[in-house]
Specification:
The chain is mostly beta strands and 285 residues long. The protein contains five helices and 18 strands. The termini are far apart. It binds zinc ion (ZN). The site of zinc ion has 7 residues, from loops.
Length: 285
């Protein structure tokens, strides 16, 4: 199944994207795709509704904005330097343990929403990533069972301001958390439709130029390992999102660096999971 959310930012309604391309409103049956939905068997109920022909489900207005396909999560856990080429282009050594950091959930954004350059920013960068949405509470979960805790997968862009991230002390979160820095979508593909999350191509284009082009098989730490690993340090609750790292080709890694400017267009895609498209715009301030 493919889950979508549509409508005004912060007031989205749940829906589904059907195999025939139709987008149907599921808000008559379901409140939202949030922690409670996943925790209370919502996915199974949604599947029943879809298998039954989506009774009462009206078509979504084709002009409606798409929001991120799940409600703003309780946590947005990111994995740094999880692809060899990216770890090397960032000038570091290869990590021997997954590098984890948090991104503020207020950065949550829709698949086609603009990305806004924060005030004082000089080094805006892009990072295409495979995002994992948690469907079942994961605490000290064994690697052999960790994928059972996954509701589905989506395309994610971990927008980053490298000066805030690297030149201003402290943790990376300063450079990762501005509003609009966490677009996800365009839909959530349920895990049953992704037989192997380590076999997906992912790419990022800036103004049509291919900048990142890799596949998830190049991850240093697999999705299976990461979910188990993270669950040793915190409980992942339904609806939480794990961004699994970006491959090489970010602006910071180029000589000279080619950071994003107002007017640029960033397109991120993961094979079979759909694409995001962000226009880069200056902040009003
Ligand atoms: Zn990242």
């Amino acid at each position: 199944m493919k889950l979508i959310r549509f409508g005004e930012a912060g007031h989205e309604d749940p829906g589904v994207l059907l195999a025939d391309g139709r987008r149907l409103d599921a808000s008559g049956e379901f409140h939202d795709y949030d922690e409670g939905f996943f925790a209370s068997g919502g996915l199974e109920a949604l599947k029943e509704w879809v298998d039954g022909g989506c009774p009462g489900g009206l078509e979504v207005d084709p002009m409606a904005r798409l929001g991120p396909p799940v409600d703003r999560p309780s946590k947005l856990v990111c994995v740094g330097k999880n692809y060899r080429a990216h770890a090397l282009e960032m000038g570091g050594e290869l990590p021997t343990e997954p590098t984890l950091f948090m991104k503020a959930t207020s950065a949550w954004s829709g698949p086609n929403d603009d990305v806004v350059i924060p005030r004082g920013a000089r080094k805006l960068d892009y990072e295409v990533e495979l995002a994992v949405v948690i469907g079942r509470t994961a605490s000290y979960v064994d690697e052999r069972e960790s994928l059972d805790c996954v509701a589905g997968f989506a395309t994610f862009c971990d927008f980053s301001e490298r000066a805030f991230q690297q030149e201003m002390g402290g943790q990376w979160m300063k450079g990762k958390s501005a509003d609009t820095f966490a677009p996800m979508g365009p839909w959530l593909t349920t895990a049953d439709e992704v037989p192997d999350p380590q076999k997906l191509r992912l790419s990022c284009k800036v103004n049509g130029e291919l900048r990142q082009n890799s596949w998830t098989g190049d991850m240093l730490f697999s999705v299976r390992y990461l979910i188990s690993y993270i669950s040793r340090f915190m409980t992942l609750v339904p609806g939480d999102v794990v961004a699994t790292g970006t491959p090489g080709g970010v602006a910071m890694g180029m000589t000279p660096p080619r950071f994003l400017q107002a007017g640029d267009c960033v397109e991120c895609g993961v094979e079979g999971l759909g694409s995001l498209k962000q226009r880069v715009v200056a902040s009003g301030g």
